Amino acid sequence: MALDGLMLHCLSRQLKDLESGKIGKIQNLSEEEIVLHIHTQKLGNVRLIINVHSNTNRIYFHDHGLNTQPNPSNFVMVLRKYLSQGIVDSINQAGFDRILIFHIKGHNELGDAKDLKLYAELMGKYANLILVDEGGTIIDALKRIPVFENSKRLIHPGAKYMLPPQEKRYTIDRVKLEELDLDSPLTKQVQGFSPLLSKEYLYRLHQEESLEEINDALFSSQNLYVYDEKNFHVLPLLHLQKEAKVYSLMDGLDKLYAYNEAKVRIKEQCGDVFRIVDQELNKHLKKLPKLESSLLRAKDYQKYQVYGDLLFAYMGTIEKEKIVTLPDFESGKDVKIPIDMRFDLKQNANKYYQKYHKMKRSLSILEEQIARCQEDIEYFTQLKEQLQHASWEDGLEIREELIKNKYLLPKKAAKGKKKPKRPHVLHLKVDEADIYVGKNNLQNNYITHHLGNKNDVWFHVKDYHGSHVLLKSEEVNESLIRMCAMLATYFSKGRHSSSVPVDYTTISQLKKVPGSKIGFVTMKSYKTIYIDPDESLVEHWIERDQVRS
Known about the structure:
This protein is α+β, with helices and mostly antiparallel strands. Helix content is 35%, strand content 22%. The strands form six sheets. A six-stranded antiparallel beta sheet has the order 15-16-18-17-19-22, sandwiched between helices. A five-stranded antiparallel beta sheet has the order 5-6-7-8-9, covered by helices on one side. Strands 1-2-3-4 form a four-stranded antiparallel beta sheet. Helix 6 (258-269) packs across helix 7 and helix 8 (302-313) packs antiparallel against helix 9 (345-388).
């Protein structure tokens, strides 16, 4: 469900705290997400994210680390030009519609102070962000809409900005109960209603709750009640008859689509990594059966020696034909030998000897190529699985690994930027214990061979690709072992299975295999524990115990 006008009304009241704030940095998180850094007297430094994705559009404060795109989009450059160091004069909603208007004291190309407006239209697939000058002319828009796409409303630099056309409907703060048809959806009767909120209002009204009581609960709400990605609102949705997760309004909007949006962002910023991994995996999957077929044919090499021997043995007694039939030396059975009519029998025999020696030599080469191909399939399958739960930093590290292995060409490094000193491993602090989780091969290698000491405990899911998990603790108890094993299953292909075996041992029992891919180790001795993965529990641990650098 997209935001509706009444939820946005509740949001706009909290956004009032940004008024009189000064706009600092302006960045893009993805192609359709903008972050404004605003310094306010009441809240201090605030990062305001305006998201205009068609399915997840919303506006909210974000108080954790951000992975912004290194290269700003053209629209971000325009916003920086006009709004950087500007003052947020006021923030208003257009009636109860899904449009917020930021009145900003910005500047023009010459640096002269100007009153500008930034329209955040959070209307599902029509969501957009539009910058307008004091004369009502569009300076630029994140999504430009030419006249051939929408003849009623042109969104393009130089065009006059017009609000979307409105149907005449009641407003919820002025309508009386007797004016409403309770047998029809409120979406067509009252401004700002979504189908979900309409169902909730009608349900409560039929339960004899008064319109005033429902309005008071809605307009006084500071929370977001989340049932799933499609069912959420500032009002508890009693008609669903389910238990909701309750968050503060801004925090809830931040968490609501966090996982899915992380996938969108990493694909936008590390699309070449996804592409090359898929290409290489598909290439080797197609190559393997061809190699195996060649190996099967090569294993039949001895028959060509027999052909040569028989031809030389009977050369003086047989006539040259397309197929000659001769008795086998050992079994006496007839052997049919194809003859190339371009050559005499002696040349045919020598060609069979050449083929025999060539195929005999190819056996070891083909076996080596098959082993290497299987290793590459294993490697790229592992990378593909790592990308399923990778963050932006994880994706960049996987790119670095592919560059080192010469699968990708290095990108030109930006001036003045230094490479990170160490991989971005997930670090949890539980009482006096430190737990480190690797989500790609570079992180796994770093955890195992750089962070780990000989008595630290190391975990890896059995028979699946997955994370290396390291436990540093003076006292290793069953609770910590189960927690680390659970983390190992969560960041593996076995996260959706049950009774997943996890091997664990001390670092001293690990051995790095010479010439193997990065992150690959073998164990001398180990123990195994069986775990039923619980995603909600792992997410709770990460939220509660993660050490943020």
